[in-house]
Please model this.
Amino acid sequence: MNESIYDEVRKSWQAEVESDEIKDLDDLRLARMTSYLSGVRLLLAETPAEDFLKADLLTQEAVNLEFMLNDLLMVRKKKILNAALVQRRPLGSLTLAEEEFYNRLVRAVEGHVEFVKSALSGTSSGSESVKGEESVAASPSESGAVEYVSVVFLRPVEQAFVGLDEATYGPFKVGDNAMIPIENARGWLRDGTVARVVIDKPKARD
Model:
Protein backbone atom coordinates (compact mmCIF):
# COMPACT_ATOMS: atom_id res chain seq x y z
CA MET A 1 0.00 0.00 0.00
CA ASN A 2 0.96 3.67 -0.19
CA GLU A 3 3.28 4.45 2.71
CA SER A 4 3.10 8.19 2.04
CA ILE A 5 -0.64 8.29 2.81
CA TYR A 6 -0.17 6.16 5.93
CA ASP A 7 2.49 8.65 7.01
CA GLU A 8 0.11 11.52 6.28
CA VAL A 9 -2.50 9.94 8.56
CA ARG A 10 0.08 9.43 11.30
CA LYS A 11 1.43 12.99 11.08
CA SER A 12 -2.07 14.50 10.98
CA TRP A 13 -3.11 12.50 14.04
CA GLN A 14 0.05 13.36 15.99
CA ALA A 15 -0.22 17.07 15.16
CA GLU A 16 -3.87 17.15 16.27
CA VAL A 17 -3.21 15.33 19.53
CA GLU A 18 -0.21 17.46 20.42
CA SER A 19 -1.86 20.82 19.69
CA ASP A 20 -4.34 22.76 21.83
CA GLU A 21 -5.70 24.46 18.72
CA ILE A 22 -7.53 22.57 15.99
CA LYS A 23 -5.33 21.88 12.96
CA ASP A 24 -6.28 22.46 9.31
CA LEU A 25 -8.27 19.63 7.69
CA ASP A 26 -10.26 19.84 4.47
CA ASP A 27 -12.70 17.40 2.87
CA LEU A 28 -10.31 16.35 0.10
CA ARG A 29 -7.54 15.40 2.52
CA LEU A 30 -9.89 13.54 4.84
CA ALA A 31 -11.41 11.68 1.88
CA ARG A 32 -7.92 10.65 0.73
CA MET A 33 -7.08 9.24 4.15
CA THR A 34 -10.36 7.40 4.66
CA SER A 35 -10.19 6.00 1.11
CA TYR A 36 -6.76 4.62 1.93
CA LEU A 37 -8.20 2.81 4.95
CA SER A 38 -10.95 1.38 2.74
CA GLY A 39 -8.30 0.21 0.27
CA VAL A 40 -6.34 -1.59 3.00
CA ARG A 41 -9.51 -3.32 4.18
CA LEU A 42 -10.34 -4.39 0.62
CA LEU A 43 -6.84 -5.72 0.05
CA LEU A 44 -7.07 -7.66 3.33
CA ALA A 45 -10.38 -9.19 2.26
CA GLU A 46 -8.81 -10.30 -1.04
CA THR A 47 -5.72 -11.82 0.63
CA PRO A 48 -5.68 -15.66 0.53
CA ALA A 49 -6.23 -17.26 3.94
CA GLU A 50 -2.95 -19.16 3.70
CA ASP A 51 -0.92 -15.95 3.25
CA PHE A 52 -0.60 -15.41 7.00
CA LEU A 53 2.23 -12.86 6.90
CA LYS A 54 0.50 -10.52 4.44
CA ALA A 55 -2.81 -10.87 6.26
CA ASP A 56 -1.19 -10.04 9.60
CA LEU A 57 0.56 -6.97 8.18
CA LEU A 58 -2.61 -5.67 6.53
CA THR A 59 -4.67 -6.35 9.65
CA GLN A 60 -2.26 -4.37 11.81
CA GLU A 61 -2.17 -1.53 9.29
CA ALA A 62 -5.97 -1.38 9.17
CA VAL A 63 -6.19 -1.41 12.98
CA ASN A 64 -3.62 1.37 13.25
CA LEU A 65 -5.31 3.50 10.60
CA GLU A 66 -8.76 3.08 12.12
CA PHE A 67 -7.46 4.05 15.57
CA MET A 68 -5.61 7.13 14.32
CA LEU A 69 -8.46 8.39 12.13
CA ASN A 70 -11.07 7.81 14.82
CA ASP A 71 -8.93 9.50 17.47
CA LEU A 72 -8.14 12.37 15.09
CA LEU A 73 -11.83 13.09 14.51
CA MET A 74 -12.79 12.61 18.18
CA VAL A 75 -10.06 15.01 19.35
CA ARG A 76 -11.24 17.54 16.76
CA LYS A 77 -14.83 17.09 17.96
CA LYS A 78 -13.83 17.96 21.53
CA LYS A 79 -11.99 21.06 20.32
CA ILE A 80 -15.02 22.15 18.28
CA LEU A 81 -17.28 21.60 21.31
CA ASN A 82 -15.02 23.70 23.52
CA ALA A 83 -14.82 26.46 20.92
CA ALA A 84 -18.59 26.56 20.52
CA LEU A 85 -19.16 26.73 24.28
CA VAL A 86 -17.06 29.90 24.54
CA GLN A 87 -18.38 31.10 21.15
CA ARG A 88 -14.90 31.35 19.68
CA ARG A 89 -14.40 30.19 16.12
CA PRO A 90 -11.66 27.52 15.74
CA LEU A 91 -8.49 28.90 14.16
CA GLY A 92 -7.87 25.86 11.92
CA SER A 93 -9.92 25.05 8.84
CA LEU A 94 -12.77 22.55 9.27
CA THR A 95 -14.36 20.00 6.99
CA LEU A 96 -17.85 20.82 5.77
CA ALA A 97 -19.43 18.39 8.25
CA GLU A 98 -17.40 19.89 11.11
CA GLU A 99 -18.42 23.39 10.03
CA GLU A 100 -22.09 22.39 10.16
CA PHE A 101 -21.53 20.75 13.55
CA TYR A 102 -19.90 23.90 14.92
CA ASN A 103 -22.66 26.15 13.59
CA ARG A 104 -25.37 23.99 15.15
CA LEU A 105 -23.55 24.04 18.48
CA VAL A 106 -23.17 27.83 18.39
CA ARG A 107 -26.89 28.23 17.67
CA ALA A 108 -27.67 25.96 20.61
CA VAL A 109 -25.36 27.92 22.92
CA GLU A 110 -26.84 31.22 21.79
CA GLY A 111 -30.32 29.80 22.35
CA HIS A 112 -29.41 28.77 25.88
CA VAL A 113 -27.93 32.21 26.62
CA GLU A 114 -31.24 33.77 25.58
CA PHE A 115 -33.09 31.23 27.72
CA VAL A 116 -31.01 32.22 30.77
CA LYS A 117 -31.58 35.93 30.11
CA SER A 118 -35.34 35.38 29.79
CA ALA A 119 -35.47 33.24 32.90
CA LEU A 120 -33.61 35.81 34.98
CA SER A 121 -35.70 38.71 33.68
CA GLY A 122 -38.94 36.78 34.17
CA THR A 123 -40.15 37.67 30.69
CA SER A 124 -41.08 34.12 29.65
CA SER A 125 -41.93 30.77 31.15
CA GLY A 126 -39.42 27.90 31.20
CA SER A 127 -41.36 25.81 28.68
CA GLU A 128 -41.58 28.69 26.22
CA SER A 129 -37.88 29.37 26.57
CA VAL A 130 -37.01 25.74 25.96
CA LYS A 131 -39.12 25.74 22.81
CA GLY A 132 -37.33 28.84 21.62
CA GLU A 133 -33.96 27.27 22.38
CA GLU A 134 -34.88 24.17 20.39
CA SER A 135 -35.89 26.37 17.49
CA VAL A 136 -32.55 28.18 17.54
CA ALA A 137 -30.64 24.90 17.85
CA ALA A 138 -32.30 23.35 14.82
CA SER A 139 -30.17 23.64 11.72
CA PRO A 140 -31.59 25.10 8.50
CA SER A 141 -31.31 21.67 6.86
CA GLU A 142 -33.45 20.14 9.61
CA SER A 143 -36.13 22.80 9.07
CA GLY A 144 -36.19 22.23 5.32
CA ALA A 145 -34.23 25.34 4.29
CA VAL A 146 -31.32 25.04 1.86
CA GLU A 147 -27.85 25.82 3.24
CA TYR A 148 -25.14 27.30 1.02
CA VAL A 149 -21.35 27.23 0.96
CA SER A 150 -18.90 29.57 -0.76
CA VAL A 151 -16.47 27.67 -3.00
CA VAL A 152 -13.75 28.27 -5.56
CA PHE A 153 -13.53 25.90 -8.53
CA LEU A 154 -10.23 24.05 -8.91
CA ARG A 155 -11.46 22.10 -11.92
CA PRO A 156 -13.80 23.26 -14.69
CA VAL A 157 -17.47 22.24 -14.65
CA GLU A 158 -18.55 22.58 -18.25
CA GLN A 159 -22.20 21.67 -17.84
CA ALA A 160 -24.68 23.80 -15.94
CA PHE A 161 -26.53 21.97 -13.18
CA VAL A 162 -29.68 22.37 -11.15
CA GLY A 163 -29.04 22.85 -7.44
CA LEU A 164 -31.01 21.46 -4.54
CA ASP A 165 -32.78 24.83 -4.44
CA GLU A 166 -33.89 24.23 -8.08
CA ALA A 167 -31.78 27.17 -9.30
CA THR A 168 -29.39 26.69 -12.23
CA TYR A 169 -25.65 27.06 -11.64
CA GLY A 170 -22.66 27.12 -13.97
CA PRO A 171 -20.89 26.34 -16.07
CA PHE A 172 -17.74 27.23 -14.12
CA LYS A 173 -14.11 27.59 -15.07
CA VAL A 174 -11.02 27.21 -12.86
CA GLY A 175 -10.81 30.07 -10.38
CA ASP A 176 -14.52 30.92 -10.43
CA ASN A 177 -16.12 31.63 -7.07
CA ALA A 178 -19.71 30.72 -6.33
CA MET A 179 -22.20 30.22 -3.52
CA ILE A 180 -23.87 26.85 -4.10
CA PRO A 181 -26.06 24.52 -2.00
CA ILE A 182 -24.03 22.46 0.48
CA GLU A 183 -25.54 19.18 -0.70
CA ASN A 184 -24.36 19.89 -4.26
CA ALA A 185 -20.89 20.78 -3.02
CA ARG A 186 -20.18 17.70 -0.86
CA GLY A 187 -18.95 15.38 -3.62
CA TRP A 188 -16.87 18.08 -5.29
CA LEU A 189 -15.19 18.95 -1.99
CA ARG A 190 -14.17 15.32 -1.57
CA ASP A 191 -12.80 14.86 -5.09
CA GLY A 192 -11.04 18.22 -5.32
CA THR A 193 -13.28 19.89 -7.89
CA VAL A 194 -13.90 22.77 -5.47
CA ALA A 195 -12.41 24.11 -2.26
CA ARG A 196 -14.30 26.01 0.40
CA VAL A 197 -13.79 29.74 0.74
CA VAL A 198 -13.94 30.46 4.45
CA ILE A 199 -15.25 33.91 5.24
CA ASP A 200 -13.69 35.21 8.45
CA LYS A 201 -16.22 36.32 11.01
CA PRO A 202 -15.53 38.80 13.81
CA LYS A 203 -14.34 36.97 16.91
CA ALA A 204 -16.57 37.13 19.94
CA ARG A 205 -15.05 38.96 22.88
CA ASP A 206 -14.18 36.90 25.94
User: Anything to note?
Assistant: The first strand starts at residue 148 and ends at 153.
